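[step 3/7] inverse_fold.run input=structure_tokens len=391
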């Protein structure tokens, strides 16, 4: 199944027509045209939503979507923008004179296209230290905890959408994971996309079944624009839906997304918290990859994500990976740093263990397929621990 270019080098070797012919080797899943029964056959949960929200919403024309509250947009005058632009030019000029910056440009001249398509998950988290400066780690962690508390999805948000079900949401997230892997997007991009999706559905109502894939596609588009160096083009996102939606529909939904989310696109994720935790208390690469794997599995479970904050999911993923491979759990250093005790983590850990244990038998295999790769230590092929050391 091919969704688009895997790197910039390959993209330049073909024309768009030739690339389309090469890529169309396997039919793509178009969620918008799946019937209710077909959706259920992919995940036999039987989860249905019956209640609807009140009618006090403002209609947005053209999408059968209603926004629950208006979002303020801050604007600046032309004079202000000119002043900012002049200041930035001066700062850029000063930066270009810096010896270290010139050295960076020399070293990276011919490698941008190749390195941009590599997933962050391919590198050990401990070496990605932009969030892990010792002098500021505590402040960064406190800031992330404050942000996650403000930007949580609502409980039972699918009750806002009578035509949608938990089964449909599950199939959509699995599809997003598959697309993210095909395009070699960062692990953080997938986490952001799911966060955007859940917050959007939390603050809207009456999203139609036929528009659910459009909402998911735009969530991934925005996450890629935010996180990736070279995100896929708009036409690539049209292609992955098999032309179900036109580019103008994606653009209109993108504008609606930004208004609903009030341009709050910087959202803490379990991936970010894992980076911090592994820096403070390092573990082997296999444990790291296993923690990443179970954290991504958690994205498939709506109830878990709305019940537990990302920091707690990250702590549970760390504990589960640590216990599976070395029979360790939550080290004292992380308990002191985070304020989470093992007692706090256990409820989330039990749910995450259930998800990990059932991953092989689920119809949704995109995340598991990704972590079968040797670059992730083939951790999804490991036998999950059958029990945990507490009732």
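[step 3/7] decode complete -> sequence:
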């Amino acid at each position: 199944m091919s969704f688009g270019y895997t790197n910039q080098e390959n993209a330049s070797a073909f024309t768009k027509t030739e690339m389309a012919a090469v890529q169309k080797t396997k039919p793509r899943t178009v969620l918008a045209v799946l019937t209710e029964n077909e959706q259920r056959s992919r995940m036999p949960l039987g989860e249905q939503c019956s209640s609807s929200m009140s009618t006090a919403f403002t209609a947005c024309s053209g999408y059968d979507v209603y926004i629950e509250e208006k979002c303020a947009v801050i604007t600046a005058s032309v004079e202000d923008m000119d002043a900012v632009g002049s200041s930035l030019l001066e700062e850029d000029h000063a930066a270009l004179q810096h010896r270290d910056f010139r050295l960076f440009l020399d070293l990276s001249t011919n490698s941008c296209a190749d390195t941009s398509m590599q997933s962050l998950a391919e590198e050990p988290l401990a070496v990605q230290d932009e969030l892990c400066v010792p002098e500021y780690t505590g402040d960064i962690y406190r800031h992330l905890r404050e942000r996650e508390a403000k930007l949580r999805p609502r409980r039972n948000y699918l009750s806002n959408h009578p035509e949608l079900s938990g089964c449909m949401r599950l199939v959509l997230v699995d599809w997003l994971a598959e697309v993210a892997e095909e395009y070699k997007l960062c692990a953080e991009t997938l986490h952001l996309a799911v966060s955007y999706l859940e917050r959007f559905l939390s603050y809207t109502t009456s999203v139609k079944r036929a528009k659910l894939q459009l909402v998911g596609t735009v969530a991934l588009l925005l996450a890629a624009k935010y996180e990736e160096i070279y995100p896929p083009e708009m036409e690539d996102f049209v292609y992955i839906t098999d032309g179900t939606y036109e580019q103008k529909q994606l653009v209109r939904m993108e504008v609606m997304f930004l208004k609903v989310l009030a341009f709050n696109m910087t959202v803490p994720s379990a991936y970010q918290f894992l980076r911090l935790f592994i820096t403070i208390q390092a573990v082997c690469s296999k444990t790291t990859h296993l923690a990443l794997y179970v954290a991504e599995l958690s994205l498939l479970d709506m109830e878990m994500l709305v019940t537990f904050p990302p920091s707690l999911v990250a702590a549970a993923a760390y504990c589960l990976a640590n216990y599976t491979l070395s029979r360790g759990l939550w080290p004292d250093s992380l308990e002191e740093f985070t304020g989470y005790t093992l007692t706090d983590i256990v409820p989330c850990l039990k749910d995450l263990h259930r998800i990990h244990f059932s991953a092989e038998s689920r119809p949704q295999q995109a995340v598991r397929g990704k972590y079968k790769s040797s670059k992730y230590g083939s951790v999804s092929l490991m036998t999950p621990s059958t029990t945990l050391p507490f009732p």
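[step 4/7] annotate
The domain at 269-381 is CATH 1.10.472.10 (Cyclin A; domain 1).
The chain has 19 helices and three strands.
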